[in-house]
Amino acid sequence: MTGNTIALSGYQISEQIYEGSRTLVYRGMRETDSQPAIIKVLRNPHPRFHVNRGVQVYLKELDYPLTVSWFWLKRTDNKRELRFVVSTHPYSGAYLVRLGRKRWMIEGFFKTVKHQFGLHCFGQSTKLGVYRWLLLSLIAYLLAHWVAFWACPTVLHWKATCRLALERLLPSVLWLELLRHTRSRTDIAAQFGFQIVLKPLPDLAYRDCCKI
After folding, report:
1. How does DSSP classify residue 75?
2. What is the pTM (predicted TM-score) of this model?
3. 64-77 tens-digit pLDDT
């Protein structure tokens, strides 16, 4: 942009129709289909953050404007990080901020489900298999979240919360895990002169349990 004229790829600029303190408006024509166009650009091609949210900008090699907004995202350590939101639709700055905040909340959820609840480990080859694995990961997340609300930890630690949910909601799974671990370590006990014997109890009520 030089003076009161601009060069914009894909458009022919005919005249300037408005000049404001922060923006300039031009009348022109789109070269692809000869349609008339009104083009609004920033006076300063490198704006500072005090420019109003929701401003439309043109980027090089793009034939359509982008609406830009931003907000400060509060992290768990009480620090704030600047996040930008860009849309091809001419939304208002306030609406873009609402969309951006919701997007980062969803991003945090998927990051937790992926790394803490095995979403990244699925090897399904069908659409139904992917849906089933996603549903299992979601159920595990909801159970752990419910236990976290019940326990009210000072700091939410997903690994510890998952272990607590397993102990409280599925103790039989934890017990079978302990038995499997014990059976796999009988050779180590034998090296020190011990023998581990797993013997079912006679009571039918405890037929799935063992005595060590």
Report:
1. P
2. 0.42
3. 788 877 777 776 67
